[in-house]
Amino acid sequence: MQPFLTSKLPNTGVSIFTVMSVLSAEHDAINLGQGTPDFEISELLIELVNKAMKEGHNQYTHRNGLLSLRETIAGKINFLYNNNVDPATEITVTPGATYAIYTALTTVLKPGDEVIVFEPAYDSYVPNIKINGAVPVLIQLEYPDYKIDWNIVKEKISPATKIILLNSPNNPTGRVLDKNDIQELRKIVDGTDIFIVSDEVYEHIIFDGNQHESILKYPDLFERSFVVFSFGKVYQCTGWKIGYCVAPDQLMKEFLKVHQYNCFCCNTPIQYALSNFLDKKEEYLQLGAFFQAKRDHFKNLMSATKFKPISSYGSYFQLYSYSELSNENELNFAKKLTREAGVATIPVSAFYQNGKENKVLRFCFAKKEQTLNEAVKRLLLFQQKEDYPM
Ligand code: PMP
Ligand code: GLN
Question: Ligand 2, closest atom to CA 171?
């Protein structure tokens, strides 16, 4: 007889990205749900991977990541954030950012420790905390501004608080932390034993002249931080699942103990390719303008519909309210749009543990112009069919 498995994550279901992408495929919908660009990635980057494979770089590489890649990452960090991290000891290449976040949490957390999490939150955070026996302390950000009220953060800090988990530019809200947020954070953690895990996968995808406030820019914050990045979001190759974590030497030593017996090292030829590509600054410096144009194009198209935009300052995403279209809950309405309009989105309620409803959906605009055009055409048809008053 099969032994009974007691779930370690009894309240965790199938990721909303899987749910909506499967439904989207079933209905041949345009998938503006999961954050996956639909345009081609750099031909040169593909050639460089190919070249590395042909040159025989097909075996394990260094546990921390290929040294030449770590050195190039350190150069980029110095250029962007004026921080001299040591590539030998302070950078680890990981199979994606999700893995790096999980590893950082697992490195720090013991059962009963508390982690401050802002909701709506990227969906991996809470299960990653719970699997470590730790407790997510949830702070709901209020629609439609989703701004952090640092007084509430102060109130939620307890002797058990071990980590504050940050994500800017934010998925799903498109909000970014500003200098004032950083000052408040500094005051709160100063003199405490609180660590920071900072998910900065959208570091370059920031709009309207805003600057990315990386934790790497602030030595007093960096000394207590694990800062996480994803090449998937820099080079639009989300399926390559490769990223990195940056942390001070002493913290990285512990991170590596977890990493080395879980993954050991990442895909070697991709690391060779990235180490020869990363110094092309224009590739990442133009991302803000590139995606801002997509955000604006989509927003212009959407202005013909009854969806109402909520400002997005960064990331691949913009939230839209559908309160003028339907009273249905977000998941049901997202499913209906997928089936009946042929456009898949993500219900933002999925990013709240209590399923908070605001009648908002997340749209991914990291798509070709023609994809966005066709999606909005379908939304308009749906609106007309439903006979909504225009
Ligand atoms: N964090 C956020 C906020 C994300 O949006 C994503 C992916 N879309 C990740 C982490 C995961 O990145 P990766 O695919 O490199 O694991
Ligand atoms: N980060 C992507 C998003 O927010 C999805 C990644 C995933 O499917 N886990 O859409």
Answer: 4
Residue 380: which CATH number? 3.90.1150.10
**How distant, in Å, are the alpha carbons of 96, 204, 274, 295, 310 from that of 63?**
15, 27, 17, 38, 42
Kindly report the protein residue whose alpha carbon is nearest to atom 7 of ligand 1. Answer: 35
Q: Do residues 321 and 330 lie in contact, with contact meaning Cβ atoms separated by under 8 Å? A: no
Which of 16, 92, 176, 201 to mutate to test ligand 1, by most ligand atoms within 8 A of the CB atom? 201
Closest residue (by CA) to atom 2 of ligand 2?
35
Answer yes or no: is pLDDT of 288 > 60.
yes
Lowest mean pLDDT among 22-31, 156-165, 377-386: 377-386
255 close to 103: Cβ distance less than 8 angstroms:
yes
Ligand 1 proximity of 317 Cβ (cutoff 6 Å): no
Domain encompassing residue 230: 59-281
Q: Is 201 in the pocket of ligand 1 (CB under 6 A)?
A: yes
Question: For 316-366, how does the pLDDT look when each residue is reduced to its tens digit (9 = 90+)?
Answer: 999 999 999 999 999 999 999 999 999 999 999 999 999 999 999 999 999
Local structure of residue 3 (DSSP, 8 states): P
* Confidence band for 385, pLDDT divided at 50, 70 and 90: confident
37 C-beta neighbours (distance < 10 Å), count: 21
- pTM reported for the whole predicted model: 0.97
Q: State residue 146 phi and psi, 5-degree precision.
A: 55, 40
User: Best of 18, 34, 101, 125 to mutate for ligand 2, by most ligand atoms within 8 A of CB?
Assistant: 34
Confidence of residue 387 (pLDDT cuts 50, 70, 90): low
Domain count, the chain: 2
Task: Report pLDDT digits (tens) over 158-198.
Answer: 999 999 999 999 999 999 999 999 999 999 999 999 999 99
Are residues 323 and 299 both part of a single domain? Answer: yes
Q: Atom 3, ligand 1: which residue's CA is nearest?
A: 171
